[in-house]
Amino acid sequence: MSRDRGSATVWAALVATVLGAVFAGVLLLGQAVVARHRAAAAADLAALAAAATWAHGPDTACATALRVARAQGAELAGCRLGGEVAEVEARVAAGPFTPRIRARAGPPREPPAPRTRGPVGAGRTARPEQPAHGWLSAHGVP
C-alpha cells in the first residue's frame, strides 16, 4: 500500500475551498460595483431633477431630488442649490456596501471658440474678426 492513499480527497477539498473563496470574492466585488452604479445613477437623476426645478426655490428643488432618488431606491444624503446649479449626494445600501456618490447638474457652459485650420496640434482658435462663411467653415471644416 502507498502512503499517498486518500491524498486526492485532501487536494480536492483544498481546491474546492479555494474556488469557493474566489467565487465569494467575485460576488462581493460584483455587488460593490452594482451598488456604486445604482448610487451614481440615482445621484445623476436627482441632480438633473433639482436643476430642472431650481426656479421654484431650493426647498422644492431638493424635494424633487429626494423623490427621484427614492424612486431609484437610494437615499439623498445631501442637496445644495447654487443658483441654477444643483449638487446632490446619494447613497445606496447593498449588502455590506453603502457607496456615496455626488453629482452636479446645471446649465451648459459656453461652447468653445471654433478652431482655425493649421498644423495638427496647433490649437489656435479663430479670431473674432474672421468672418464665418456658413456653418461648415465656422466649425473648422474646409
TrEMBL record:
Residues 99-142 are annotated as: Disordered. InterPro entries: Rv3654c-like (IPR021202), Tad_N (IPR028087). It comes from the Bacteria. Pfam families: Tad. Residues 6-52 form the Putative Flp pilus-assembly TadG-like N-terminal domain. This is Putative Flp pilus-assembly TadG-like N-terminal domain-containing protein. It comes from Streptomyces virginiae. The lineage of its organism: Bacteria, Bacillati, Actinomycetota, Actinomycetes, Kitasatosporales.
